[in-house]
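Changelog-linked ticket: zinc ion example.
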Amino acid sequence: MASEFEARLRAVSLRVTRPRLAVLAALHDHAHVDTDTVIALVRAELPRVSHQAVYDVLRALTDAGLVRRIEPAGTSARYEARVGDNHHHVVCRSCGAIADVDCAVGHAPCLTASDDQGFMIDEAEVVYWGTCPDCATRRIDQ
Ligand SMILES: [Zn+2]
Ligand SMILES: [Zn+2]
């Protein structure tokens, strides 16, 4: 797997560094995690990495398109390694759990605007809000 992450970094002309590899590996195993979780996961492997170093890596990987940053309203920024497929997210209003939802159409912008106002629209940001199975079960139990 490490060599696959090295190839991804090289493909976007980013230098291969251990923190970058560790962040990619963490996001490959854990989707939609916040910055603190990424830091904890990376430090489990590289104990001496600073917060700032992880922030910098996340920014570089996001700018390069290897990592996607999402920020549903009312939550902190989350990161994931699943990029380039225009998938959407469903967010639990109760506990904040996030899951992937495949693009409804299969390609961006997914939704056709009723009036594009003359804009060339290339993306629609869709967030589905609801109640996750765990929270739904808990509600029934109460
Ligand atoms: Zn929930
Ligand atoms: Zn996702």
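Closing comment: Example verified and attached. The chain has two domains: 2-70, 85-141. The longest strand covers residues 88-92.
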